[in-house]
Amino acid sequence: MSNLRLINETTASSVASVSVTDVFSSDFDIYQITINNSDITIKDYSELRFINSSGSVISASNYDYANLEMKTYSSFGELKATSQTSLPNMWYSSNETASQGSFNMWVFNPYSSSSYTFVLASNGTNYITSFGAMANKIIGVLKNTSSITGMQFFPNSGSFDNILVRTYGLRVDS
Amino acid sequence: MGLVQVATNTVTSAVSSVSLLGITTDDVYMVALNNVEPVVDGDYLRMRFTKASDDSADNSSNYDRAAKELRADTTFGDSSQTNQDAFNFIENGTGTSETHNSTMYLFNFNNASEYSFATFEEASVMYNQDFRGRNGGGVLTVAQATNGVNYFYPSGNIASGTFTMYKVV
Fold it and tell me: CA of A91 to nearest chain B CA: how many angstroms apart?
């Protein structure tokens, strides 16, 4: 049996944000998140906030991130900031049906109440008409030792036409 | 993709190094590290491959690596070395969550006629709370069978952390 276990599958349509709740627990320390079939109404990045064990979306200025933009149409770019209210630039979607977003993320230690929550993410090449393709490598951290149990994704602007989020736990057998 | 656990070690009291052994097939293997912390503030995690001949960590000066260092606090950097005796990662610390977290993939380890390769993606909080991570890869330019990985902090011990290796099936 695989140590990578599917925990949750969340789909949504025509929403301003999607919350994936009660997926992080003491059962796992590391999780893999995949997002595909992601259309948004406006070409833009989508953002991530974590949800604590009280069910509150964390929007305090405790997120640091760095994003390497690898483009076919211009020089590579660097997006980075500290003390943000979210992880702001997680994946880029075009608003065209044939150019949906793609995203893969590892989340470390979310449920722990003594550790920050760390993120490693990448997305496959997203195609933006009249520009070209772009891929991203991303790191992120929530500098808060709250116990995290879920995630909220939302576009910088516009809303999701469609989105499919899968959450997997990576089991460690002692 | 499935992942089948091969080896794991959770450090709760200080140790000088951690080895994960068990690569015996030509499959790709994955390593996940979380909450790895040094005893000495400012120390940086290092990685070697273990020799299938005797399980010892190869400390020959044949490690080459290249990575983009992503930084939340400043301009990104290029990090590369050749002919070193191990791979280096970002400095960690002994303050709150100043830890190393990463995923790595291992290639061609079981093949005695090939070099052994690794890719790595890292997210680390440093000893001063800056947040950085190296994305890249490396190679041990010795044609030999390797059967695992070894981690250590050069200035002191590993205080804590979980190290796990999986076979990709």
Answer: 17
CB atoms within 10 A of CB A103: 25
Taking the C-alpha atoms of residue A157 and residue B43, their distance in angstroms, rounded to an integer, is: 42
In order, the DSSP letters of A15-76 are ES-EEE-S---TT-SEEEEEEEEEEESSSEEEEEEEEETTS-B--SS-EEEEEEEEESSS--
Asked if residues A31 and A121 have their Cβ atoms less than 8 Å apart, the reply is no
Separation CA B53–CA B110 (nearest Å) = 11
- Cα separation, A11 vs A116, in Å, equals 28
Interface test with B, best of A118, A145, A146, A171 (most B CBs within 10 A): A118
Give A149's contacts (C-beta < 8 A, 6+ positions apart).
A21, A22, A23, A24, A25, A51, A52, A53, A55, A110, A111
Burial letters for B51-77: b for 16+ Cβ neighbours within 10 Å, e otherwise? bbeeeebbeeebbbbebbbbbbeeebe
pLDDT, tens digit (0-9, with 9 covering 90-100), for B107-127? 999 999 999 999 999 999 999
Q: How far apart are CA B85 and CA A135, in angstroms?
A: 32
Quick one: pLDDT at residue B111?
97
**Subunit contact A141:B1, Cβ cutoff 8 A:** no
Give the global pTM: 0.97
Q: Are the C-beta atoms of A67 and A61 separated by less than 8 Å?
A: no
Q: Which residues pair with B48 in a beta bridge?
A: B150
Q: Which chain B residue's Cα is nearest to A80?
A: B72
Q: How far apart are the first and last CA of chain A?
A: 15
What confidence score (pLDDT) does residue A125 get? 67
Structure tokens at A57: 């979306």
